[in-house]
Structures are given as C-alpha cells and as structure tokens.
Amino acid sequence: MGRILQFSDIHFGVELREAVEAAGELARTTPCDLILITGDITQMGYRREFAAAAEWLKTLPEPVFVVPGNHDTPYWDPLARLFWPWRRYEQMIGHPANDHMFKAPDLIVRGVNTARAAQMRPNWSKGVIDLEQTRRAADALEAAPDGALRILACHHPLIEMIGTPMTGEVSRGREAADIFSKSGVDLILTGHVHVPFALPISIGDKCSYAVGASTLSRRNRGAPAGFNIIEWNPQEVTVTAQGWVGSHFEPQRVWNLERRGSERRARLRETAEASV
Ligand SMILES: [Fe+2]
User: How far is the CA of 45 from the centre of ligand 1 (A)?
Assistant: First the structure.
C-alpha cells in the first residue's frame, strides 16, 4: 500500500495558520511516500510569502513535490511576469516550474505547469496547458513499470468539474486529459477551485481520475480548509478529504476509485498501438 498527502492552495500571505501548522504536524507523523503540493503556495508571489512557504516546506519530511499555481508569479511586477515569471518560485521553493518528475519503484509523478503570468485573454488566472509538455509527461507516465501508480500533477483541473465554485477553463485541457488518459495515467491531481473532489474522467477506459484538493488558506469557497490523503493498493485508490473543524482535521468525504487492472492495461496498450 502507498500513501500520498496532497496539500494545495496554501496561499502563504492569507494562509489559515492553525490549519497549516496542523497539516505540517500530520505530515511529520504520518508515514507517506510523498507530500505533493498542487500550486498556489503564495497569495501574491511576494518574496516574504515565498520565504514563509520555504520555511514551512523545510519542516516537512522528504520527498516533497511542488508544482506552481497562478498565484506563484510576482503579481505586481509586470517585467518579471513577462520575462522571468517563475524565477522567484524556482529559486525560493527549489522545484522546477516545468517538467517536474518524481520516481519511486511503484510510483511516478510528473508535473506540468498550467499557470501563466500573462496570456491573450483578460483573466490570467485561468489555465493553459502546453501540448509538447503534455506529451513529454505522458510518455514518461506510459513508460512506468506495470502496476506503478501514475500521477500527473498540475494546478488547474484539466476538465471542468460540474458543481465546483469556479472554473479553470484550461486552454487545450480536454485534449491534454485525453492524451494523459491514453498514457494510462491513474490520477490527475489539481487544486485551484478550493473544494475537494474525485471523479472518473469520462474519456478513454474511465480508469483515469481527476482529484482535487481543498485549500489550506482563508480563501474558502464553500468547503472547509483541508487536504487529501491518497492511499492505494493494486486494486483501488482511496481519496480521503480531510476538513479543518476549527481545532483539528476530520475526514469529510471518502472516494474509492477502482484501478485499471492488468487486463485493462493490456487493452489500453492494444488500443494505443492500433491508433498509431
Ligand atoms: Fe488558489
């Protein structure tokens, strides 16, 4: 069995301090294979916010894997946003903004950057995915050993989730989700909407799941602050959304997601080969 803690949207600057401290304490006392953070680690991309985030990250047990969100580029610095949008994030957080990867014998995680510091539409908080980066990540996921859990991590949900309080509107998101699903990805882990969810992606063999985490900030959107505990065995993945109840976390909702069996993996490979 494996376990991942997924934190998201901590928004240092407007973080919910007690919840962030309690989440750190849980991370230090809960054995897990990876702590994965799906973006928006700061609120405005200020140096002091990154410094606070880096201090907190230092208290967590390794391995830790972070991808950036739309709040992780300097909000008030147009020059930086245009020419080196992820420099501060990469220098202070210490993780690459693009093509991030984590590998263990039974787990592979690829990170893709869906956040942009500027784009040709008025709302820059929405997502964009680069299909070249998508294909590189999908190839790496596909090459993982049989039975390994394959995860794609990014900030914005690639497909709109019905019932969530806001949208990611990721340009090329559906196309990318299709590519990932054909590569045999098990989970696409995201943040951005600040509510937890776990749903099958209704393309491919429906054994790829979109999983979102709540926020650890004060920016609630109808769900309590929280995070996900993701556990897996060869048959299924269990996602437990933990919610902050004012003094501690409590399980709010549990999803059991059937994993793609070896028979289904073989079928997926046949379909992929037939479509070449
Ligand atoms: Fe956020």
Answer: 12
- Check residue 273 and give its pLDDT: 61
* Cis? peptide before 63, omega within 30° of 0: yes
Environment class of residue 172 by beta-carbon count within 10 Å: exposed (0-12), middle (13-18) or buried (19+)? middle
Delimit the domains of the chain by residue range: 2-274
The band of 268, judged by pLDDT with boundaries at 50, 70 and 90, is low
Q: Is the pLDDT of residue 28 over 60?
A: yes
Structure tokens at 220: 């609630």
Model-wide pTM > 0.90: yes
Give the pLDDT confidence score for residue 272 in this predicted structure.
59
Residue 276 CA to ligand 1 center (angstroms) comes to 38
Q: What is the CA(50)–ligand 1 centre distance, in A?
A: 15
43 CA to middle of ligand 1, Å?
8
Q: How far is the CA of 264 from the centre of ligand 1 (A)?
A: 35
Distance 41 CA to ligand 1 centre (A): 8
CATH superfamily label, 2-274: Metallo-dependent phosphatases (3.60.21.10)
